[in-house]
């Protein structure tokens, strides 16, 4: 089993910054991709940013130039640095990880999700 634990959310004023972290733990042989998504009340979940194991990144147009995704592969951790935050960035932020687990009996590749961390941008 694999667990993802997010941290770093909170209340911040418009124009401020936050750094989210998401640590993966458990039966991990390798991680292919990690990412951040967000869901605001009454809205569908949307992709914020993704990063591959080779370091290639992808961002939603709404956050380009303001957010930066990075990883610490040794710690199986993905980060999201969020700058110039706007009220419309308010949402629950969830991380996901595409994890491969290899045992002597089987191999499984599965997309795991964390529980989410609340980010509120308000004055």
Instruction: Say what oligomer this is.
Output: single chain
Main beta sheet? 7 strands, mixed
Q: Strand pairing plus helix content: what structural class? A: mainly beta
Number of helices: 0
| Helix fraction by DSSP (H/I, runs of at least 4) | under 10%
Structural shape? elongated
The N- to C-terminal Cα distance equals 40 Å
Regions with little confidence, pLDDT below 50 for 5+ residues: none
How big a fraction of the residues is strand? over 45%
Mean pLDDT: 96
Order of helices and strands: EEEEEEEEEEE
* Total count of strands: 11
Radius of gyration: 15 Å
Summarize the structure.
The chain is mainly beta and 123 residues long. Helices cover 0% and strands 60% of the residues.
What does the secondary structure layout of this molecule look like, with pairings?
Elements: E1 2-7, E2 10-12, E3 18-26, E4 30-39, E5 46-52, E6 57-59, E7 67-72, E8 77-82, E9 91-102, E10 107-113, E11 117-121
Parallel strand pairs: 2-11
Antiparallel strand pairs: 1-3, 3-8, 4-5, 4-9, 5-6, 7-8, 9-10, 9-11
Structural overview:
The chain has 123 residues and is mainly beta. The protein is built from no helices and eleven strands. The strands form two sheets. Strands 2, 4, 5, 6, 9, 10 and 11 form a seven-stranded mixed sheet that branches. The protein has a four-stranded antiparallel sheet with strand order 1-3-8-7, with no helix packed on it. The mean pLDDT is 96.
Keywords:
11 strands; four-stranded antiparallel sheet; mainly beta; seven-stranded mixed sheet
């Amino acid at each position: 089993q694999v667990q993802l634990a997010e941290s770093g959310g909170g209340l911040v004023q418009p124009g401020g910054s936050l750094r989210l972290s998401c640590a993966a733990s458990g039966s991990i042989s390798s991680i292919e991709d990690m990412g951040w998504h967000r869901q605001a009340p009454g809205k569908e979940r949307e992709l914020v940013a993704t990063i591959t194991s080779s370091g290639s990144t992808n961002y939603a147009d709404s956050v380009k130039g303001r957010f930066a995704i990075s990883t610490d592969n040794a710690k199986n951790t993905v980060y999201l640095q969020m700058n110039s935050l706007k009220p419309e960035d308010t949402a629950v932020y969830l991380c996901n990880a595409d994890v491969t687990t290899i045992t002597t009996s089987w191999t499984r590749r599965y997309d795991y999700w964390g529980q989410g961390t609340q980010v509120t941008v308000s004055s």
